[in-house]
Every structure is written in structure tokens, then in C-alpha cells.
């Protein structure tokens, strides 16, 4: 990650950092790491959205390695960053299309408003800038704004967008796009989808139909299913992962909207709870504001330490 991106990431994590960093300073202005201090630290980690599972792991590690010693908040920050990074490292996996599939079909799912369409546009730019031939499908056909937004990204990136009239059959669009992508030698095909989670059964049917119809042309499609999550929703993101894993075979996560109101600890809770790859994080509206996920930079930003670069 470039230094500028880390600065924006750290700014985005500011809400979590203030809660976590301020709490650490309050607990550990040089004091013995005893049961009382560990209990306060556990409460702090839970309220900072890291979740009880992560909190328990960190506390047990500290109890084993540092119990009874005098520590400062700086020492605890460093140790905590290492603990968090060790949880995040296994899931910090960049998204890499499989060249064996042409096109590599990416189904992008998530509730309305999390940034699915913008994420597709940014990923399209990222890969087209690196020489890949990218196509996009405006599969959220009931929301005219989503179709228009993807078409704008198509103009920006020079990537074709397959769209139909409002209310068109999303599965049919995806099928036609897959046929066209194969014929034109596309490397990547991103399929936008609806996110009306309030009607779970209808959404399940729609996603299942898209997959079923695409498999009539390519029985291995989709090759990736990316779930886009809004970091500002905190613990609600955990429930969204659970629900979408019931609907489709989620293969990886993209976390957006890590702005000043974000609850960044949730990424750690997701990594610990589900172990799904976190491919990228977004910190703003610009194309370059969606970047591959760096475990150590994220962990250091979360506890208020400078980046590794």
C-alpha cells in the first residue's frame, strides 16, 4: 500500500482507533498486566467491534506471555497489532482471476447500499489498466440508478456494460453476457446483483436462477462470488455474511466505506469468525481508493501506530 493510501486508511479507521487507542492509554499508563487490566482490555476489544472471540484469543495470548509484567500503552499497542495481524494474515488474499476461465465470472452480492456497483467499477478499472479485457453486467435490473451507475463506470473504464430495460431478467442478461464474453475473449465478467435482503426468499431464488442459467453455458460459473460489506454497519456485517453464505457460495469479501465513521474492528471479527479471504478494502470514492488488503497495515492503523511503509 502506498503511504497516501495508508494515511487515508488510518483516517478511515479513526473512530475505531480513538476508541481503542484512547482506551489503551487509559488502562495502560504503565501498570501491571493483572486480571483487572486484562478484563478491562477484553471489554475494550469487544466494544471496538473486534468481537468476543477475538478478545478472548488476545487475552489468552497476553495472559500466557505478559501476565504480571509492567507494560505501557505503547508496548500493548505493538503487541495488539501483532495479535490482530496474525488473525488477519491468513485472509489477506488479493483477488486473482483464474486464466483457465475466459471469462472468469465474478458474481458480486451484498445488500443494497453497500457499494456493490462502485466496487465492480473500481475493480474493472484496476484489471483493465493491467491489460485484462473486462465486461460488466447490470444485473440489479429493478434499480434504474444501479444500471445507470454501472453504465457510467463503463464509460469511465472503456469496459462494455450489458444492460436491459428496467425489470429485465437478470439471469438472461448474465447468460447473454457470458456468451458474448466467451465469443469476444474477455478475461473477466463482473455480474452486479440485487440486494433486497428484506425479501430473502425472492433474493435467494433470483441468485440461484442467475447461477443456474449461467451454468447452462459454462457449468463451472460463477468462478468467484464476492460479498461486498459496508464497514460502517459494524456487527450487522457478521449477520450479512451468515445470510449470504446461506444463499450462495461466497468465496471472498470486499469491505467498503472505511471512512471516518467506520467501525474497523469488524474486519477482524469477520476474519476470525469466517476465515473468508478479504480481497480489498475501500477508503473513498476515487478509483485508487480500493486497494488489496494488507493485514499489518490494517492492524497498525486500527491501534493507532504508523504504517509499515
UniProtKB/TrEMBL annotation:
Keywords: Cell membrane, Cytoplasm, GTP-binding, Hydrolase, Membrane, Nucleotide-binding, Receptor. It catalyses: GTP + H2O = GDP + phosphate + H(+). The keyword Heme does not apply. It is a peripheral membrane protein. Residues 103-304 form the SRP54-type proteins GTP-binding domain. SMART domains: AAA, SRP54, SRP54_N. Its EC number is 3.6.5.4. It is found in: Cell inner membrane; Cell membrane; Cytoplasm. CDD domains: FtsY. Pfam families: SRP54, SRP54_N. Its main location: membrane. Residues 102-253 form the AAA+ ATPase domain. The keyword Signal does not apply. GTP binds at residues 110-117, 192-196, 256-259. Residues 9-88 form the Signal recognition particle SRP54 helical bundle domain. Involved in targeting and insertion of nascent membrane proteins into the cytoplasmic membrane. Acts as a receptor for the complex formed by the signal recognition particle (SRP) and the ribosome-nascent chain (RNC). Interaction with SRP-RNC leads to the transfer of the RNC complex to the Sec translocase for insertion into the membrane, the hydrolysis of GTP by both Ffh and FtsY, and the dissociation of the SRP-FtsY complex into the individual components. Belongs to the GTP-binding SRP family. FtsY subfamily. Part of the signal recognition particle protein translocation system, which is composed of SRP and FtsY. SRP is a ribonucleoprotein composed of Ffh and a 4.5S RNA molecule. This is Signal recognition particle receptor FtsY.
Amino acid at each position: 500500500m502506498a503511504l497516501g493510501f495508508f494515511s487515508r486508511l488510518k483516517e478511515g479507521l479513526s473512530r475505531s482507533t480513538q476508541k481503542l487507542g484512547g482506551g489503551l492509554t487509559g488502562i495502560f499508563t504503565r501498570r501491571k498486566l493483572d486480571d483487572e487490566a486484562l478484563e478491562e482490555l477484553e471489554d475494550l476489544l469487544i466494544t471496538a467491534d473486534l468481537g468476543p472471540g477475538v478478545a478472548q484469543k488476545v487475552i489468552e495470548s497476553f495472559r500466557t506471555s505478559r501476565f504480571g509484567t509492567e507494560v505501557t500503552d505503547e508496548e500493548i499497542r505493538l503487541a495488539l497489532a501483532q495479535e490482530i495481524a496474525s488473525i488477519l494474515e491468513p485472509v489477506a488474499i488479493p483477488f486473482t482471476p483464474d486464466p483457465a476461465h475466459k471469462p472468469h465470472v465474478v458474481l458480486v452480492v451484498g445488500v443494497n447500499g453497500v457499494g456493490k456497483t462502485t466496487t465492480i467499477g473500481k475493480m474493472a478499472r484496476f484489471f483493465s489498466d493491467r491489460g485484462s479485457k473486462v465486461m460488466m453486467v447490470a444485473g440489479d435490473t429493478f434499480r434504474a440508478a444501479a444500471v445507470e451507475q454501472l453504465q457510467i463506470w463503463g464509460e469511465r473504464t472503456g469496459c462494455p456494460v450489458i444492460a436491459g430495460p428496467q425489470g429485465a431478467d437478470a439471469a438472461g442478461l448474465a447468460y447473454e453476457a457470458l456468451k458474448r464474453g466467451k465469443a469476444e475473449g474477455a478475461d473477466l465478467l463482473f455480474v452486479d446483483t440485487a440486494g433486497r435482503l428484506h425479501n430473502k426468499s425472492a433474493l435467494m431464488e433470483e441468485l440461484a436462477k442467475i447461477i443456474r442459467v449461467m451454468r447452462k453455458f459454462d457449468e463451472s460459473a460463477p468462478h468467484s462470488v464476492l460479498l461486498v460489506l459496508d464497514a460502517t454497519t459494524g456487527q450487522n456485517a457478521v449477520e450479512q455474511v451468515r445470510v449470504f453464505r446461506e444463499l450462495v457460495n461466497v468465496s471472498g469479501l470486499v469491505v467498503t466505506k472505511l471512512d471516518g465513521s467506520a467501525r474497523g474492528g469488524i474486519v477482524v471479527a469477520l476474519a476470525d469468525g469466517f476465515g473468508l479471504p478479504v480481497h480489498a478494502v475501500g477508503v473513498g470514492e476515487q478509483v485508487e481508493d480500493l486497494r488489496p488488503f494488507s493485514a499489518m497495515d490494517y492492524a497498525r492503523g486500527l491501534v493507532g501506530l504508523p504504517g509499515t511503509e
